[in-house]
Amino acid sequence: MAPSQRDEELQQLMKTPVVKSKKGFGEGGLDASTWLSAKGNFQRVDGAPNAEDGSSSSSKRFCPEEEANWFSMAYFLYCDGLIKAGKAKHLEQHDLWDIAREDDASGVYARFNKHLQSTVVPGTAPKVRARRPGARRATRAPTWATKMITNIYEKSLRVTSAVKSELGVGAIVNLQSNDASKIWNIPLYLHIVWNGPFQIFVVMALLVRIMGWAPAMAGLAVTVVMIPLSTLVGKSLGTARRAMVKQTDARVKLATEIITGIKAIKLYAWEKPYEERIHQLREQELVHIRYTQMLSMLNTAVFQSGPVLVSLAAFGVHSAMGYSLTAAVAFPALALFNLLRFPIIIHAAMQPCGKVVTWWQHASPLFEYSSGTQLDCSQHGSSAWPWAVLQSYFYEAAKPSVHQPPRPAAVLVCPYGATLSIQGGPAHLQMLVKLVTANASKC
């Protein structure tokens, strides 16, 4: 639009009065919505962007996953273009598409926060008693870490000073870096917990059919003895990891205090005492780390020897009872023992019982942190009136003067007592905003 046309349009807009009637602003004149929707000069923003849809849309945004049908999603056909491009050349950053809106951090956290807020008991005071925000309403496991990290960050901006002083910066940092990142692993370990014993039971039933009750029960007895042993080692691992996390929190907290007060430490030459304290905490942490690794190695050694011990027990009892070890018995039994090897080894390698205990140790601080007391935002004032953003406009035609300022280029209608903030613009006055309140008009 040419400057002359814009000036004429502004002059016509400024001649239109702003009238307040019994129903509010707008009748007989120009209301705030019309002022704020003037061509290309202003933009009206009613609150924050829609967080359910993720980040704000852009004309350059591209994500084929959002437009893929169910067949393409099932067979990942929407990735064909990227695969062909990777076959033809080395992929660069600009070759990758944007993340889907449903997987965007803002959208993922918005859905999580919606369910989290639904657990709050209504009708209570600022100190809200809430049901424990478990993972029963969570969606896909890969988004758990994103939800937890965003929730911790949002909560850290709203917790009271008492909660911050009780936890410390080190504990909050550990919640984001360690605890939240381990949450998404739990579905895999949970499936192994129930699937492993089920496979063992089926294989042992087939062994009973082939070898008889006594040899199969001998192998089953060895297996049953090993399962509670894993639980015992898992509990020991949980206790060791709790002690290790406490030492880690203390070390990170001290390191944060040193970084915060580095000027005072340098001024009074306290580098050596603080260095000794850091080394002392680190040595204590390493002691717990070594103990935890020893327990992990013990658990792995016991279960990796499990299939061998089961086979020795079963074949030993079978031979002791006077049965002949024929090919019709030995080879199917060995095949079944090989099938039995997988659930036992997978229990040894992944240690699902220990992983579940570890997950609970990481999840419990998150639950306690999410249930902590936070600031009541209503105590600091709130406003239901829409924000008005003046976007990239300067009244070029006006020649402002201190003694004779130009007429206002815009009219904002807002409640009486509201605070108006205009940010940006040149040093000299090139734009005036007429503020119309509910009781009076002020320039």
Automatic annotation (TrEMBL):
<dbReference type="Pfam" id="PF00664">
    <property type="entry name" value="ABC_membrane"/>
</dbReference>
<dbReference type="InterPro" id="IPR036640">
    <property type="entry name" value="ABC1_TM_sf"/>
</dbReference>
<dbReference type="InterPro" id="IPR044746">
    <property type="entry name" value="ABCC_6TM_D1"/>
</dbReference>
<keyword id="KW-1133">Transmembrane helix</keyword>
<keyword id="KW-0547">Nucleotide-binding</keyword>
<keyword id="KW-0812">Transmembrane</keyword>
<feature type="transmembrane region" description="Helical">
    <location>
        <begin position="294"/>
        <end position="315"/>
    </location>
</feature>
<dbReference type="GO" id="GO:0005524">
    <property type="term" value="F:ATP binding"/>
</dbReference>
<keyword id="KW-0813">Transport</keyword>
<dbReference type="InterPro" id="IPR050173">
    <property type="entry name" value="ABC_transporter_C-like"/>
</dbReference>
<feature type="region of interest" description="Disordered">
    <location>
        <begin position="1"/>
        <end position="26"/>
    </location>
</feature>
<keyword id="KW-0067">ATP-binding</keyword>
<protein>
    <recommendedName>
        <fullName>ABC transmembrane type-1 domain-containing protein</fullName>
    </recommendedName>
</protein>
<feature type="transmembrane region" description="Helical">
    <location>
        <begin position="321"/>
        <end position="340"/>
    </location>
</feature>
<feature type="domain" description="ABC transmembrane type-1">
    <location>
        <begin position="144"/>
        <end position="344"/>
    </location>
</feature>
<dbReference type="InterPro" id="IPR011527">
    <property type="entry name" value="ABC1_TM_dom"/>
</dbReference>
<dbReference type="GO" id="GO:0140359">
    <property type="term" value="F:ABC-type transporter activity"/>
</dbReference>
<keyword id="KW-0472">Membrane</keyword>
<feature type="transmembrane region" description="Helical">
    <location>
        <begin position="213"/>
        <end position="234"/>
    </location>
</feature>
<feature type="transmembrane region" description="Helical">
    <location>
        <begin position="188"/>
        <end position="207"/>
    </location>
</feature>
<dbReference type="GO" id="GO:0016020">
    <property type="term" value="C:membrane"/>
</dbReference>
